[in-house]
Structures are given as C-alpha cells and as structure tokens.
Amino acid sequence: MKVESASANFETALKPSKRESKGILHYFRRDWQLYLLLLLPLSFVLVFKYAPMTGLVLAFKEYKIAKGFWGSEWVGFEVFRDIFAKPDFAKAVRNTLLLNVLDLIFSFTMPIVLALLLNEVKSIRFKRVNQTLLYLPHFLSWIIIGAVAYQLLGEGSGMVNNAIEALGGTRIPFLQDDTNWLISYLAIGVWYSMGWGTIIYLASISGVNPDLYEAATVDGAGRWRKMWNVTIPSIRFTIVTLLIMNLGKVMDGSFERVFALQNKATTEYTTTIPVLVYRWGIESGNFSRATALGLFQAVIGLALVLLADRIAKKLGEDGLI
Amino acid sequence: MKATGGALIASRRRRFDIWDVLIRLTLIIASLACLLPFVHVVSKSFSEDAYVIANKVFLWPAGFTTEAYGKIFADASILRSFYVSVVVTALFTLLGMILTICAAYPLSRKQLKGRVTLTIIFTFPLFFSGGIIPEYMLINNLGMLDTIWSLILPLAFSSFNLLIMKSALTNSIPVSLEESARIDGAGHFRILWSVVLPLSKPIMATLALFFAVGRWNAYMDALFYIKQNVDLRPLQLKLYYLVIQASESFQLEATQVSLSNPEVLKASCVVFATVPILCIYPFIQKYFVQGVMLGAIKE
C-alpha cells in the first residue's frame, strides 16, 4: 500500500496531466495525515490573522457600540476624510517617515563598518568576546533599554550628565527636549542594532573567494585597498538587498521602541502612526478612526514592500517574496 | 611593483602595526558602549541611597548594600509578574513550536497537493495584517481580554518562524531517507516523529529560543490586552508602569520607615528583569546567529 503510493507519486511527477483526473479525494486519501497536521496551524492563522482582517470594514463604518460591529452604519470614505483633516494625522505620518528614514541612514552603515573591522581581526578569541558584547542589546526588551537610557541620560541623575557635571560642564536634557530626544532615539537605535546587524555581513564576507585576496596581495594591495576593492564589492549585493528590504519598512511602527523612550516633555516626535492608533482606539475608544489609520499604514506598507521586491528583482536579486 | 610587495610583506612581519591597534581599539570602544550602561545600572542597584542621590555612583557600587533587592523580593506583585512571564513564555513556546512543526512539515513535502496555495495562506500575514484595533476587537469578542490566553494564543503562530522551519526541513532532510522510511511502512506521522524531528533538533532549539526570547521581551500586546487584571501583568509591562511611567509605586510595607530612593529601586528592577536573559545569553547566542542566517536564506 505504502509502496504503491510512493510509486504513484513518481508516476504522477512524470505525467502531471493525468493527475488532474484523479480528483482531489485521491490526494486526501493518500496524504490525509499531512492535511490533518495542517488543521491546527491553519485554524490559528484563520482565527488570529485572517479574522481580524474582516474587522477592517470598521474603517468604512461609523462604529457605535450600541449598534455593534455589523449594525453600524456604512459611511464610505467619510472616516478617512475625517482623519486626513486631523493635524495629528499629518504629524504621525511625518514622524513615522522621519524616524524610520533617519534610522535607516544612521543605523544602516554602522553594522557594515563593524563587520569590516571585525573581519580585520585575526584573533578568534578577541573577535568572539567583542561579538558577544556587541550582540547583547539585541536580546533585551525595549522596556529595559528605555529604563537604562533614562538611568544614563536622564537630566537630573543620569550617569552621563553626572560625568559631564563632574568634568565641569552643564547638564544636557538628552531625553527631555524634542530635538535632543530625536538624536538620542537615533543613537540608541544605532547602539541597539550595530552588533546584531554584522551577522549577515560577516557571513557574506566569509563567503568571499580567498583567491581574490591572494591575488590582491600579489598585486601589492594593502589592508584598506583589499577592503575597498575586494571585500566591499563582494558584499555589495548583500548591502543592496538589505537596504531595499529596509526601505520597504519605512512605514512600520516601532511602537515598543517609541513607547519605551517617550516621556511627557517630548511629544513632538513621539506621535507615530501606531502610537496614534493606540491613543485614538484603545485609550479614547474611537475604533473606526483608529482602524482607518491602521489600514492606511498597512496598505502603504504593503505597497512599499511590493515595490522593494520589484526593485530587488530588477537589480538581478532573488527578490524578497 | 615587486619592491612594494616585498615592503608589504616586511611590514606584515613587523610586530607592531598601528592599524591593527586602531581597529582593535575601535572595536573595544564599541563593545564597551554595549557593556558599560549595564555595569552602571548594576552598580547603582547595589549602592546606598545617599551616594546615588549625590550622583556619586558611576561604574562601581558606592556603599555596597543589597537593600533594594530585599525590597523587590518582598514585593509580591513583582514576583507575581515574574511568575506570569515564566508561565506565559513556557506555554507560548510550547504552542508555538507545535504549530510551527505541524505547518512546516506538510508544507515542506513536495507531494502535498495545494502546497503553493497553502504556503501563500500561511505567509501572507507577514505582509499585511488587520492591525491593532481589529485584533483588539477580536480578542475582546473572544472574551480573552485580561486573561492569560490573550498573551499566548494570538501570536503563537509566526509566519516568519514557519518559513525558517520549512526551509530547514526542505534542505536538511534527504528525500531518500524519507522514502526508505515509507517503503518500510511508515506513515507521515511516524516519519515526522522518528525521522524528521530527531534530525532537526538544532533548528528546533533555535526556533524555540526565538519564540521564548520574543515572548519574554514583548510588552505591546500586554499593554493592550491586560488592563483591569493587574495580577496578570507580565514582567515587562510591570516594569513599564514601575520604571518608565513611574505611575505606580513600589508596594512598601507600612512599617518601613525609610523610603528608598526610587532610582536605586528602579535600577535593581532593571537588573532583576535582565538577569534571566543574561544567564542564558552565552548559551543561546550561537543558536540565534544560526537562526538569523536561516532567516536570510529564502527557499
């Protein structure tokens, strides 16, 4: 019986046209165990990922708790017209793009630099100790990082400010002033991701053909020449792919990061789209408006990812999807 | 040409290379930037209040004391949050692994009819989701608000981890091995249990850690779903209210006369919440690195 099914499998691989006639029941009978296994995860995906998508109709309705989800009135694009006119909306979109684009500019290059430097180190132990320390922030929650940030950068008692004062300077409100907050936010982002980001580049560098380095040495290339003319061109595709992937994410939220670092004194840059969704929806209970804002973000996000995928494929990459 | 090459080799042989030193120095500074903030917080947590108030604590405790930790271990609500986090993380990881394996194995079998469609159904949520509010309403409608299940069930299925598991199973299990098992009369369940799973222990360890560390560190869903039932706050959320928002004070015993400086208590809370991760960090790091590599490779 089992042997039969295995051979049947081979046959059909050769003649796919005959397979259609066998009907779907045949496959169910043969692979019912596989379909049975899929049942549990499929139900989770349908309930927790797809069922919420039906909730998106709220963006086109005037949600009233008394009337319920289905009973509420359809209002077309009225909710969108409503949110587009809100000053908070423009601010949230601006902040989301601003934080993500600046993050991309500053956090993207540091891992490449560190990976190139780590690659120059011959001692394996030195490399390993450094990597262990550099990866550390990635394993901690944004709450912990936010708390540590306030312990270090707080105006009243932060260690950095204590050191500045001890050296004769004046205290700087690193996190309690809008512009400073933005700079600190970005610096913390660089700090958080600089080590972890090296992993992919280091893997990419380790795949470079050693003959290239040998040839470069024979041609008289020094350390920096080899880095510039051999290593960087070899990992160029990795860099471009990661850059495009990150470009596809510029509408993403980073809610946990903003939320853990924000405070009452700095509100100029902390209103991003997910923060506004939280405020409108969960804090104020205006579900229609918050859903519409979330949908707006999701649609643009999807478009950006598809665009990024297109660009990657145009450049001769595998594509992301 | 040859002369420069010779000079280069000669300079290589020299013991002292200024660039080597500078590169190492840069790396050491970067590493210290990652380490020292935590050294400071640990030092603060072991320091006496007076020194902390006077801003005298830098990278070493001043006036060593464990008083703050005594207070944390006397605070039932913090211990309770820790317990909630442990239970949630354990159940979440177990469920997440079961779901991932149950989905990844069938989807990695080429013979499965409808494989492409099913894979699309499972991975589409990576690119588009209902968003915060529809998900919140779903949890509300299911009656899971303020229950432990709101932290376990919704995120237990991860499309990303499924893709990693699926590509690992596709690449690492030889088809011939599975075929010989089938000829021996083994069904899919049997093959999964006796052949596939024992061969994929490393990837399972990696994904289990992805699930566990991700769950341990996340707080957004808890912030949304755990509102009234404060007993169910996981550790990260507790820490948010305690340290970041500082809206909640520590449960101090009425008999306690001296109130500690909140800075010291905050520092020791951070350490208390970080230590579990730090304890396992040296052991799990390499699995994470492998996971990143697998995630970067598409099928």
Molecular structure report:
The complex is a heterodimer of chains A (321) and B (299). In chain A, 72% of the residues lie in helices and 1% in strands. With 321 residues, chain A is mainly α. Chain B has helices spanning 2-13, 18-45, 49-53, 67-74, 76-108, 115-123, 132-141, 149-152, 159-172, 175-183, 188-199, 201-217, 220-225, 235-244, 262-296. Chain B folds into 2 domains: 2-53, no CATH class; 67-296, MetI-like (MetI-like fold). At the A-B interface, helix 1, helix 3, helix 6, helix 7 and helix 8 of A face helix 1, helix 2, helix 5, helix 6 and helix 7 of B. Chain A: It holds the Pfam family BPD_transp_1. Chain A: Keywords: Cell membrane, Membrane, Transmembrane, Transmembrane helix, Transport. Chain A: Belongs to the binding-protein-dependent transport system permease family. Chain A: It is found in: Cell membrane.
Helix and strand topology:
The complex is a heterodimer of chains A (about 325) and B (about 300).
Chain A: H1 2-14, H2 16-22, H3 24-54, E1 61-62, H4 68-71, E2 73-74, H5 78-84, H6 87-120, H7 124-135, H8 142-153, H9 159-166, H10 178-193, H11 198-206, H12 210-218, H13 223-234, H14 236-247, H15 255-261, H16 273-283, H17 287-314
Chain B: H1 2-13, H2 18-45, H3 49-53, H4 67-74, H5 76-108, H6 115-123, H7 132-141, H8 149-152, H9 159-172, H10 175-183, H11 188-199, H12 201-217, H13 220-225, H14 235-244, H15 262-296
Helix pairs in contact in B: 2-15, 4-15, 5-9, 5-12, 9-12, 10-11, 12-15, 14-15
How many runs of DSSP E, i.e. beta strands of chain B? 0
Residue stretches of chain A low in confidence (pLDDT < 50, at least 5 long) are 1-19
Look at the structure and name the CATH superfamily of the largest domain in chain B.
MetI-like
Strand-pairing-aware structural class of chain A: mainly alpha
CATH 2nd-level architecture of the largest domain in chain B: Orthogonal Bundle
Share of β-strand residues of chain B: under 5%
Which class do the helix and strand fractions of chain B yield?
mainly alpha
Beta-strand content bin of chain A: under 5%
Please, what is the oligomeric state? heterodimer
Q: What is the 3D shape of chain B?
A: globular
What is the name of the CATH superfamily of the largest domain in chain A? Answer: MetI-like
Question: How many strands, what sense, and barrel or not for the largest sheet of chain A?
Answer: 2 strands, antiparallel
The overall number of domains of chain B is 2
Protein name (chain B): Putative aldouronate transport system permease protein
Membrane topology (chain B): Multi-pass membrane protein
Subcellular location (chain B): Cell membrane
Domain ABC transmembrane type-1 (chain B): 82-282
